[in-house]
Specification:
TIM Barrel, 8-stranded parallel sheet, 9 helices, 8 strands, binds D-xylitol-5-phosphate, binds zinc ion
């Protein structure tokens, strides 16, 4: 099955005091997903949102809430995030080496889609055992396994940082190995960097400052989608 472009504005760059209308604005501009950065001040040196905010936002939108958990104890967040209405639950491989199997099963049991993220310093090989195992646990004949790998293209914690092109090797390697996997990139994506990410094989694109800082966010979103689609077609 061919992968499709998913453009996910990062709500970290939105006006948090108007989260519901910011979400609606992004969806009207063509966003597929809304990327929600959950940080608790331990895994990264920043504190953002948690389940109560997801729950409030869920009352205003049916959109896919692509939640990126930058926390040291993701297992503790599965239940509250599931209840709050999260759609995707992406945890970091660096903090889940010992319990990822339980974590994934719990995420699935709460009706969320599991994803795994890796920081710039983490080699891509670290997610292989997880992917293999995820496939053997969940793959149903004729169906694409539900999974996603998020390749961080900045050090996680803050929006507005510079894209790290050297991370594209990870994306390329992963795409070659897993042609139908959702591969998400996050950090510093915008009109000047999307070409590199899309040609490496990324299909889920998180963009915070480049979208929210644009005079016409819809143009940035459609340009991003175009770049992914063109590269997927030619691959
Ligand atoms: C960084 C977050 C990103 C961030 C991206 O820790 O995971 O989602 O919001 O922001 P930009 O697109 O501005 O780099
Ligand atoms: Zn993120």
């Amino acid at each position: 099955m061919a992968v499709t472009a998913k453009i996910a504005p990062s709500m970290l760059s939105s006006d948090f005091s108007n989260l519901a209308s910011e979400a609606e604005r992004m969806l009207n501009c063509g966003a597929d997903w809304l990327h929600m950065d959950v940080m608790n001040g331990h895994f990264v040196p920043n504190l953002t949102i948690g389940a109560p905010v997801i729950e409030s936002l869920r009352k205003h939108t049916k959109a896919y809430l692509d939640c990126h958990l930058m926390v040291t104890n993701p297992l503790d967040y599965v239940e509250p995030m599931g209840k709050a209405g999260a759609s995707g639950f992406t945890f970091h491989v660096e903090v889940s080496k010992d319990n990822w199997q339980e974590l994934v099963l719990r995420i699935k049991s709460k009706g969320m889609r599991p994803g795994v993220a890796l920081k710039p310093g983490t080699p891509i090989e670290e997610v292989y055992p997880l992917l293999r195992k995820l496939r053997s646990i969940f793959e149903v004949e004729g169906e694409n396994p539900v999974e996603m790998v998020l390749v961080l293209t900045v050090e996680p914690g803050f929006g507005g940082q510079k894209f790290m092109p050297e991370m594209m090797d990870k994306v390329r390697t992963l795409r070659k190995k897993y042609p139908s996997l959702d591969i998400e990139v996050d950090g510093g994506l915008g009109p000047s960097t999307i070409g590199a990410a899309a040609s490496a094989g990324a299909n889920c694109i998180v963009a915070g400052s480049s979208v929210f800082g644009a005079a016409e966010p819809a143009n940035v979103i459609s340009l991003t989608r175009k770049s992914v689609n063109e590269n997927r077609k030619s691959s």
